[in-house]
Amino acid sequence: MQLEIKNLSKTYPNGVQALQNVSLKIDKGMFGLLGQNGAGKSTLMRTIATLQNPDQGHICFNDIDIQEHPEELRKVLGYLPQEFGVYPSSTAYELLLHIADMKGITNVSQRNQQVESLLKKVNLWDVRNKKLGGYSGGMKQRFGIAQALLGDPKLIIVDEPTAGLDPMERNRFYNLLSEIGEHIVVILSTHIVEDVSTLCNQMAIIGKGKVLLHGNPEEISSRL
Ligand code: ADP
Ligand code: ADP
């Protein structure tokens, strides 16, 4: 399983060069994308998620060009955007069923089974019938991960996922992610160095739209 990013560039209409010739190879496991605010992380994440197009370059997942075949990528993608909006008046159970339906999991018993097992996995089963508006930040994040895991994704993208979590919630969230990351490609975008050094087996640092360093975290910290 591999995500390959080749010579990706993106300039916004206002002239900001958000990505400049970015190339990365990302294998199975947890990949940390580290960079300050404005470095280009969200632009890269949204481009991988096929929510926006680059001006130049290609992205291949398992040798399939995702701009040419966005529908193939979306089938295997779980995405937790930076600002994941939940509908405050629906319950976790209702919303997850609805999202499962939208993701094309149309078989009712399969859908119910998957929603139940995911809510248990993220430890929200007991509060499944409570409204999301009453959830804490950590609970909302765990809900966000549950929806990203629907449909058995092979690639998961999480963008600045720990903002607003207390240390305990953060630990729980990371335990969950590393469990998932054993089997598929997980990309974690963050500006927090410790998140990457404790969790990731591969990493890159980007700044001003360029890849500054790329390798394993020990290798990189020895060069800093
Ligand atoms: P981040 O925390 O990733 O740096 P930003 O604050 O840069 O996020 O961006 C938040 C949202 O606003 C994003 O959807 C981004 O595309 C948009 N955005 C950021 N900068 C600009 C800009 N200069 N003009 C228009 N939209 C922008
Ligand atoms: P990060 O996620 O690392 O904070 P972003 O990808 O959000 O970085 O932003 C990279 C640069 O592009 C920033 O200078 C930001 O203001 C700018 N930017 C992001 N989105 C937009 C947008 N939609 N329009 C114009 N500029 C944007």
From TrEMBL:
This is ABC transporter ATP-binding protein. One of its GO terms (molecular function) is ATP binding. Residues 3-224 form the ABC transporter domain. Belongs to the ABC transporter superfamily. The lineage of its organism: Bacteria, Pseudomonadati, Bacteroidota, Flavobacteriia, Flavobacteriales. Coiled coil: none annotated. The keyword Cell division does not apply. It comes from the Bacteria. The chain holds residues 1 to 224 of 302 of the full protein. Keywords: ATP-binding, Nucleotide-binding, Transport. The keyword ATP-binding applies.
